[in-house]
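Hi all, long-time lurker, first post. I run a small reading group and we've been trying to get comfortable going from sequence to structure in the token notation. Rather than ask abstract questions, I figured I'd post a concrete chain and ask someone more experienced to write out its structure so we can walk through it together at our next meeting. Sequence below, copied exactly:
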Amino acid sequence: MGNVVVREMKVVWLGLRGFPGVMGGVEAHAEKICPRLVQLGCDTEVIARSPYVPAGTTEFRGVRVRRLWAPRSKYLESFIHSFLGVLYCAVKRPDIVHIQAIGPAIMTPLARLLGLRVIVTHHGPDYDRQKWGGLAKLVLRRGEAWGMRFANARISISETIEAAMGAHYGVECVRIPNGVDLPALPGSAERLEQFGLVARHFVLLVSRLVPEKRHEDLIRAFSIAQIPGWKLALVGSSDHPDRYTARINELAQTTPNVVTTGFQSGETLKQLFAHAGLFVLPSSHEGLPIALLEALSYGLPVLASDIPANREVGLAEEQYFALGDVEQLAERFRVFARSPNGSVDRDQVRRWVAERYSWDAASRTTLQVYHGVLGHTGQPAL
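-- Answer (accepted) --
Happy to help. Here is the structure in token form:
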């Protein structure tokens, strides 16, 4: 017999804002997994929204980037871009269309009608986000229902989501948690100077400026706690600046020792993570919080609201506080401030999170789901 030529599996990811270097959990998820899929032998392409990706962006770490037009509209952006993305896939005919999140998943029936094999990853119940009105929540619920019922396969990023989809729709999801890469810890802290921060003496939150992140709770608790010599650093921005963004920026400006840095990436973000004294995630809505896992990958002590997604990370009980309980969070700040700075074994924290959450494992399992949808048998263990 002659040599057998094995064609690369062609995979298209659809449903994220941009790629790479775009703020957001879905975007971070894609940026970690897609290059690994390339390394595993997939011809991988990401469809990005034009407002978030500079013209001329075509490739990142072996992943092809296709920039398609999308309106810069809070309510229409995802819907229109996902529709155009499905039409693009209908022309290109990839082996797998991998839709990210339940909003874009509303296009699952259309994609199936066009003869495409579709996998949907459920990153969280976006209809619970405070920014959406009644009509938007209805559309998101419809996207969840159609994505779960009509996809060839479904992935959930958490046990909570997996159980909810089984209960609501009677479908099975493959649970593939988000992961971490253990970063090399930067020796320098020079990037902190521009924000007036001192290493190990600031509380950190890294997130988009959206209501479900509960920035106001954090600012109020920090103000009540009155920790001498400490500051609060809020890192992140908003896709669509609105009244919430304006309110948080105003509150930060009028509250002593609160710093807003805007969106940060690269070395500056690494130094903010590496040299923070404490990371806090007070949010009311998460899938499986990548920012919290990243904080742990730097060995940071953390506090998080007691919502199911945060509890699934598996922190110690004293690291959780009741959602919205500003006084309890303030008291947790005071308790932490009374402890000797640096008492947390940061190397132990890094080992703990690395043993539980792996992007390499997530990528290999994702590829196994692809093979299952394509009916490949006898695949080697990955």
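A couple of things your group might point at:
The domain at 9-179+358-374 is CATH 3.40.50.2000 (Rossmann fold).
Residues 1-6 have pLDDT under 50 and may be disordered.
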